[in-house]
Amino acid sequence: MYQVQDWAEVHRLFFREGWPKAKIAEKLGMSRNTVARLLVLGGPPRYERRQPGSKLDAHRGSVLRMLDEDARVAATVILERLRRDGYGGGITILKEYVAAVRPQFVGARSFQRTTYLPGEIGHTDWWELPVSVPVGKGASRKVFGLVTTLPHSAAHATVFTFSKGVAEFLPAFSGTLQRLGGVPKAVAVDRDTSIVVPHSRPVRLHPEVGALFGAFRVRPVILKPRRPESKGQVERTVGYLEGSFLPLREFEGIEDLQAQHDHWTAEVALCRYHRRVGAKVGDAWAVERGFLAPLPDPLPDVDRRVEVRVTKDGFCRIADADYSVPPGLSGRRLQARVSPAEVVIFSEGCEIARHRRSFVPADVILDARHARALRLAREAEGRLRAADPDLPEVDLTRYDSLVGVTP
Questions:
Q1: Which of 188, 158, 189, 186 is nearest to 172 (CA)?
Q2: Over the stretch 82-95, which tens digit does the pLDDT of each residue have?
């Protein structure tokens, strides 16, 4: 079974870097036929049952420790040391595993520097804002921002959300790349649980995140834990935002926060002179955009799909809010497409309800049409009950007289 990361890396190297299939196969330790099959796949491979374990499984941790000490150590040297620990497998499977995990160690070190080529790399990280914004009905919620920076030009983009999970990372990351006007060759990320699978060995992206990186044909660089200097540009950008954007501001909601930030970025952040860059950020960004890959057309679908059950009173619970559906569907399982802006509910592929997304805790969102249909149904049921006739008892002896039977 091909992994999402294999599919994403093959597509990036072939379509973005222009590598031939033979070179990709050599770099990733796979056959050219495998590369060709991965290129034919229009989307990331789906999950299938895992294959039985191998003799290498018990020694994977040792391999990772050796690569951590020397990221370019040869597979033959690793094999020699594993033999001492009782490894009885062959070198082929060891080479394939080393080829798969080595880029994580080489890549993380390759980008820990203070100068960058235009379009070479981006840094992405979450920003936990020290403010809350109103969400309606007297409630407010804490805000997070996903910040993506281009270290060469120091340009940045931020998309704000009310939480930081996988479902929020996908549209936020796509939104930052849209604001930056293109896609860098690689993006460095830390090991936040919204990005990587917790406690995974070796560390790997969530399948949804890996598929998104593959759709943008960008190479992920997963940094080692507790290494903030590895993504110093985005760390400095967050500090700049907290010191220069947030003070003395008030926000009417998350849309107002996003609008104010985007306007401030265009009018202030891009117009400032950056000492390391040696020019205005906007001027350097204009040059760097020429080195960014174009955004895919169409953009990847980042909406979340969930299955929901209709309650007895005709609502579907999504996140922490209830959304109405037409009456008569109690107990049915429906499908919902959830985005930061709206919730669309389907029954057997047909849209039956569309609501603006609410972030008010325990909110109830009732469509006026659904409320009217429910009221009419209840009124009709009440009229039927009120018009139930009181029938008198029927004298059956008259039927006996008709057929000449004497009681």
A1: 158
A2: 988 888 888 888 99
